[in-house]
Amino acid sequence: MKEKVVLAYSGGLDTTTIIPWLKEKFDYDVVCCCVDVGQGAELDGLDERARLSGASKLYIENVVDEFCDDFIVPCVQANAVYENKYLLGTSMARPVIAKKLVEIARKEGATAICHGATGKGNDQIRFELGITALAPDLKIIAPWRMTDIWTIQSREDEIEYCRQHGIDLPFDMSQSYSRDRNLWHISHEGLELEDPSLEPNYEHLLMLSVPPEKAPDEPEYVTMTFEHGVPKTLNGKAMKVSEIITELNALGGKHGIGIVDIVENRVVGMKSHGVYETPGGTILMEAHQQLEELVLDRALMDAKKDMSNRLAQLVYEGKWFTPLRESIQAFIETSQKDVTGEVRFKLYKGNIIKAGTTSAYALYDESLASFTTGDLYDHHDADGFINLFGLPLKVRAMKKLQREEKKNQQ
């Protein structure tokens, strides 16, 4: 009986080519697994494509709600953003995909898992750290790193290899952007983006959004509510998190929200240039932060900022299944106990503009914040506070002055 390998299958040219290659090089029984994290129409026709390519079975596993509830929500609660711009769309999806691949491998009695990530990118790390953390006994096959037996170098090579193995599928020979899509975002790399001195061709590139200058001339108001940092309603309607993100994607895309051009530092040591479309995610993150401003105190916000940056780095590096991520998430969840309330904002030509925030847990007090003197605040109290708060500065300056005076007397 042949050994089984579970292939992380997208239906694209790369992973379709890998099916006959695994059979030829290793004599595996290839079981394909496509994990649905909100790719949409990309899943159409996968069953027939996998079968015609030689797979014995195809699983299409819908994990959209798990992805949203267990992976996206913790990152939203943390305001986790990598290098100030990247909202971790691909990074958050990889651990839930790895988790499902391991589940299918156990179910099928497979001895290996194969992925189609290249040897230059971050995804090879994310997939393999996730698989190793959950199933250290399973072999991992990464064809693009096996250059002694994987000799394919281009799309033309892949199409020719498929034809030689009796697979004649309608793949496009033309070059296109390298994209990754899920419910949270879509990323674009390649073509003119490989030269950061060039302006991205947004007319040709964008799939979820319009450029801000082509967005409607009238703003659109949006209202959201949160409970303990979790989004619950959109414009008065209760929805699942996945439904809220879907609706926000449509609203944000319409108004040119969440288009990010970034040169980022990959884990493997090189810089990469890409464009991310995250219309709904950008709105959701901004709305959550808008509410936090009202309910979190200064010390908690300061500590949370450090934890947010640390979490973003862990997620980007593929270290989801680690005690450190679990510990940071526990801190974040505790910080969210009072993040309950309503936010209102308007969308206008790429901008998210505040239009009011309310919460029963608000720490803002008008009598304290106003310029008129209230009962809780005596201006004279600031004298002593400033003296104590600035005491280290005063002592340092005095000591410096004493040294200069002593030097002048010599």
What descriptive keywords fit this protein?
410 residues; alpha/beta; Rossmann fold; Argininosuccinate synthetase, chain A, domain 2; 3 domains; 5-stranded parallel beta sheet; 14 strands; elongated
Chain-wise SSE layout:
Elements: E1 4-8, H1 13-26, E2 29-36, H2 46-52, E3 57-62, H3 64-78, H4 89-108, E4 112-114, H5 123-134, E5 139-141, H6 155-164, E6 178-181, E7 186-189, H7 202-205, E8 220-227, E9 230-234, E10 237-238, H8 241-254, E11 259-265, E12 271-277, H9 279-295, H10 298-316, H11 323-335, E13 341-348, E14 351-358, H12 366-369, H13 381-389, H14 391-409
Parallel strand pairs: 1-2, 1-4, 2-3, 4-5
Antiparallel strand pairs: 6-7, 7-12, 8-9, 8-13, 9-10, 11-12, 13-14
What does this 3D model show about the protein?
The protein has helices spanning 13-26, 46-52, 64-78, 89-108, 123-134, 155-164, 202-205, 241-254, 279-295, 298-316, 323-335, 366-369, 381-389, 391-409; strands at 4-8, 29-36, 57-62, 112-114, 139-141, 178-181, 186-189, 220-227, 230-234, 237-238, 259-265, 271-277, 341-348, 351-358. By secondary structure, the protein is an alpha/beta fold. It has 3 domains: 4-174, Rossmann fold; 179-296 and 338-358, Argininosuccinate synthetase, chain A, domain 2; 368-409, no CATH class. A 5-stranded parallel beta sheet has the order 3-2-1-4-5, with helices on both faces. Strands 10-9-8-13-14 form a 5-stranded antiparallel beta sheet, with helices on one face. Strands 6-7-12-11 form a 4-stranded antiparallel beta sheet, with no helix packed on it.
